[in-house]
Amino acid sequence: MNSKENNENPSYLQSITSTTDLKSKHIIQIADFLPKQERDTLFETVCANQEAFQYIRTPESTKGGALHLSLKPEKSEAPEVVLIREACECLSKRTMKLLPRLFTDLDVEPFPVSHIPFSLTNCLNGHKGIPHTDESGGRFKITLLYYFHKIPKVFRGGAIEFYETDTTAQSGHSDKAFAKVEHEDNLLIAFPSRMYHGVTDVQLDSVEFEDGRFVAVGFLGPW
After folding, report:
1. Which CATH architecture has domain 27-220?
2. pTM (2 decimals)?
3. How distant, in Å, are the alpha carbons of 110, 128, 170, 217 from that of 147?
4. Helix (H) or strand (E) holding 199
5. What pLDDT, on a 0 to 100 scale, did the predictor assign at position 64?
6. Cα separation of 32 and 29, whole Å?
């Protein structure tokens, strides 16, 4: 399917009924989200301006680390950041067109959205995200992930796994994932921010920036 067809017909990875809160769990994935030219421009611009990224060790990471870049204007107006921000505008614009469908299919009460800011992360060898939610105290309602990587893919692992909420467990979630999505190039994933999710180990023998696991992350909320 081409990007236009996919954008009009988001496909469901899985929709199940939770045994803990009896609410449906929805995960939407859209393959070939960006047209090839926009996807290639984004990847090439990111790789050509890799000095804009900073090393971080995120709280939900158990080991390894990642290279991160916030694209919020107040964070930086450095020339290389501006170039990447402009290349990412296609993500925001195309996702904006999907909002009515996302609100309906993810069972989220609609709220005004004027722009979708994304941040970029390039996960390094050994990175692993422990299960967590993106709610931020109820601030965010929808999480957006856009995956892209070098073709052919160099790293292994880095899949996202989803877990049922379990209020009786100390962790707040079940031990076993109910769904898993592999990191595939040009894939958009959307799910409720309250859903627990984690990332499997990234295995990467290369130290080249362009060989990493790239993800653009966006959070949507009424605040």
Report:
1. Sandwich (2.60)
2. 0.90
3. 25, 16, 31, 9
4. strand 196-199
5. 66
6. 10
